[in-house]
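Lab notebook, bench 4. The sequencing result for the construct came back, and we need a structural model before the next group meeting so we can plan mutations. Quick request posted to the team channel:

Model the 3D structure of this chain.
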Amino acid sequence: MYQLEGSVKLINDVQNFQSGFSKREFVVTTDDQYPQDIKFECVKDKCALLDSVSQGQRVNVSFRIRGNEYQGRYYVNLQVYKIDPVGGGGSGSHPQPGEPPAGTGGDGIADDPFADESSPF
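Done. Here's the predicted structure in token form:
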């Protein structure tokens, strides 16, 4: 499980599919030196979590990383299970106790050499 703190930038409407599946996506902007817009999704009954959230609000999002393959392409989704309002300032993403920071191989070293492409260096 992972957590990320930031400001809500965008909240989309609920998408309902013929299969009965529903999801709602939203974007949170981090407070990092180079802010990132991170898209999350709420599925099924978790869509209601966004009913009490508004754009511009600071939140702490608890989520799971989900991956799948479809027709030879691989996808990653950040599925939300909890959203908490934040009263004060924050410092970006925080791993759960005992877990390495997101995007690292457990040793604190980033797995993705292009993880900070927005850097001017």
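The chain has no helices and seven strands.
Will bring this to the meeting.
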